[in-house]
## 1
Amino acid sequence: MRIETSRNTERIGSVTINDVQKVLELDSGRAKELPVEEKIAVQKIEQDVIKDIEKKMAIVVPIKDEKVKLFEGVISGIPHECPIIVLSNSRRRRVDHFKMERDTLNQFCHFTGRQALIIHQKDPSLAQALEEAGYPDLLAEDGRVREGKAEGMLVSMLIAMMMKKQYVGFIDADNYFPGAVWEYAKCYASGFAMTKSPYTMVRILWHYKPKMSRGVYFKKWGRVSQVINKCLNSLISAKTGFESEIIKTGNAGEHAMTLKLARELPYASGYAVEPQELISILEMYGGILPPDRTKAAKHGVEICQIETRNPHFHEEKGWRHRQGMLSLGLGAIYYSPLCGGETKKVILGELRQQEAVGQEEEPAQPRLYPPLKQIDLQKFAEIMQEHMSSYSLPEEKE
Ligand code: GDD
Ligand code: MG
């Protein structure tokens, strides 16, 4: 893969945020030396380097009641070396969607010799493992894991840690283009190859997100992304005193992290999770709040934003869904101790304009989960292992 070198980097405390780097070539050819001048402007990440990282990178597919055809396409796009973790919160009544997903994955693994795992978010053994390992925060009153994409992501990160992987990457299950999925995974691996810190995050910026209205229109920015980026940049600008537009991937669902970083961060519930990751990184390592003396602060945290070539085309879930996502994402920014009066004003203006909150109201505060490092991973793994035969594929036992 050939990717632009980042031309602009902002440093906030121990956090380095690289400006968007575009993919120039999906396939950059055989390994050979590049002329020196080319090396400065672009980076060539060799196939073997990518493959080595993929082996250590679990790809998580969170899924809730998506079309099984789409899910099938998504898993077909995940590079062969990456182990797959499917975290499903799909319906099990009348039509058992989870079973359909499981059968699809099973068949895929059978014919491709893949390593994969599928777990239902509401599986009682999962809840038991979390409870006994000292991380009951994820459990609802009914004793099962709470609803939400973030909740599924947190469980998957624990599974990836249990599998002793080094990296974890997330890819939504409702993507229409397997080629885009493939590219996301390649970009994650390339991002990790380009960055130096063991505490790194790679976030994807879509080249285009096509919309259907009297023909196809290749839209660059979604409204939710635009507003979330604007508010995160407003927060950064207010703190540094220099106007910034560095954040272009504030709510990127497609993103990846080293597990070293993943275990350190507090996470927000549901769709607030992605903006909160950036907020958590800035709060912990941005040098604005009392300094953090962990290893991550010493090494520095690197955030890489990569713009892909494939357009992102996924299920359209409607205006109300987007409005909910916006409120949650902005709520994560609004309640950060880093968020000053100016940024709060911008957030309220946006939410009121979209009628997501009333004129006198404030956004709801998303639930915050403590860092995953506080769990007794060995205990969690022991309990999960007991049930592993029912999660792992293809050796399925009912
Ligand atoms: N396990 C699990 N549990 N998965 C869920 C849940 C849940 O409760 N809710 C949704 N998902 C899955 C969906 O099935 C899908 O695969 C993925 O999470 C993303 O959900 P969507 O509902 O498709 O979200 P979106 O497309 O509107 O938003 C996506 O992109 C945004 C950036 O534009 C998400 O990835 C957002 O998190 C992201 O901010
Ligand atoms: Mg979607």
## 2
Amino acid sequence: MDRIVYLNGEWLGETEAKVSVFDRGFLFADAIYEVTAVIDGKLIDYPGHAARLKRSLDAMDIPMPVDETELLALHKDLAKRNSLTEGLIYLQISRGSQDRDFVYPKDMRPTFTMFTQAKSVLGNAKWKTGLSLQTVPEGRWSQRQIKTVQLLYSSLKKTEAQREGFDDVLFVEDGSVTEASSANFHIVTKDGTVVTRDLSNALLHGITRGSILDLAKTAGLKAEERSFSVDEAMAASEAFITSATSFVTPVVSIDRTPIGNGAVGPITRQLLDLYINDRLAHGMPIASA
Ligand code: PDD
């Protein structure tokens, strides 16, 4: 693999791009990130990701290194330089480098990196089989609405879960589901209502989550935003996760208890199809200026 990556205003071969050992992203996980999908040569849900990037930076007191026009141009340029028509664009902004100190000065220059990952987003095998989730106690910090690179707990727990034969974990706090390791979690009740946790600092405000809620309402489905327990999730007729990388992916079991009849549910499939069709029609073409 020999990608062209972006680093602080330069386009470099992936082995040439180097970040300092004093970077606060490396030393303190003092960095935020975004992941935007590309399908059919189009950026998916780009405005939502760009807006959340700004919110994360503001919450962390990190200045935005480029303006909105340049940010979009960089996404398109990166995809073009790497001939990316399907896959992901990863973007990370750390506070920058300084000698190790818990206290950061006001005038730091952020470290801004971007790279592509080519992959078959639309060929997701789990859309047919669904995912098996394992519940684990919520163990992340309390500001989960900020998309920081502090992903260690999620990474350790997801790895453990996969070694035990699960696909992913479902975080549970005070008896209520928060989200999966890197996706929002939703259920469909027996009366066909889509239920997803309401927004707060307990979970990431997923861009795909917001899009799916809009599409569900437009399609005439009932949708509710509220907390729910693991027991309610296990008794649901369907469950699914949403993220930029997995779109809408069915969940067929939790702690080895089947959800509904243990197969991919019809409302989940309907929302996945609605999302793909809508985004193929309205994604932001990379080829345009
Ligand atoms: N993760 N919750 C968490 C904890 C996440 O990390 C993500 C996305 C989501 C879904 O958000 P969105 O729909 O905006 O992608 C929810 C990305 C894909 C990742 O870490 O790779």
